[in-house]
Amino acid sequence: MKTALICGVSGQDGPFLARFLLDKGYRVVGTSRDAQISSFANLDRLGIRGRVRVESASLNDFRSVLQVLARSKPDEVYNLAGQSSVSLSFEQPVETLESISVASLNLLEAIRFTGQSTKLYNAGSSECFGETGEAPADESTPFRPRSPYAVAKSAAFWQVANYREAYGLFACSGILFNHESHLRPVRFVTKKIVAAACRIASGGEGKLTLGNIKVRRDWGWAPEYVEAMWLMLQRDHPEDYVIATGETNSLEDFVAAAFAEVGLDWREHVEIDSRLLRPSDIAVGRANPAKAARELGWKARLRMRDVARAMVEEERALHAV
Questions:
Q1: H-helix or E-strand containing 15?
Q2: Which of 244, 299, 300, 315 is deepest in the core (most CB within 10 A)?
Q3: Which CATH architecture group holds 3-179+221-243?
Q4: Residues noted as catalytic
Q5: 162, 168, 58: which is closest to 116 by C-alpha?
Q6: Quick check: helix, strand or coil at residue 36?
Q7: What is the pLDDT of residues 3-50, one digit of tens each?
Q8: d(C-alpha 182, C-alpha 178), whole Å
């Protein structure tokens, strides 16, 4: 039986990955900064809380990282931890940098220090690419980060590459484009949209307030993306991969799709507020995931409209009487 350590098991991707690995027969250990007080609500929502062993670990503390590696003795480590909101990173740049880049460095150094034959997956981000215009980003596209979050993710990416080349660690990054699910917190715009559409459709009052709805992104379904993470660690040699659907839509398209699912015209319920605009943003996110299809045999099955439909269905089920 293989053991997987999932750092950041209580977020969106962590529970889906835990469920996927449990179904594969893994022993799964998950970390949180304080496992004694964390609710692990998303593990409960997927019905797997009792099957995941949880450990307290502060990835900013090298000693804490060494301890959790010694206790769990993982075959595979999935680093999904860290501050995950682009918007919040402008307000908390130091916390964002430390929770992503310092945490990644501690994991890499701890694996090197212990000499364990542990494989490491690092959660990269399409935000690292910055503005590429209409050119689809692939594994050779230069990074031009435009937010503190993207800067931190870029640093972590190059740390992984450095340890792979300098010390021969099996360490790789998945450069994931936007991927959503019903486990997203409402501060993420897709969940904010879906929650508002369902609330208004059920008789709730109020408008949905958004910033720039002209931005375009590649949106996929999070439960599919965790399979790509696992596939990267099953290869003989570590490499980095862009993970995306290859389809780009505007945020306005996502809003329209979500409201259409509940039988509403979004234009009657949405207001634009310039105060929600980011200091700098990416106009278009476009991906070329051909390498993942070719080498991992992975392709996204659900596209943006499928994602909006699935999120609406889950939101309705959650609040069903």
A1: helix 13-23
A2: 244
A3: 3-Layer(aba) Sandwich (3.40)
A4: 125, 127, 149
A5: 168
A6: coil
A7: 999 999 999 999 999 999 999 999 999 998 877 778 899 999 999 999
A8: 14
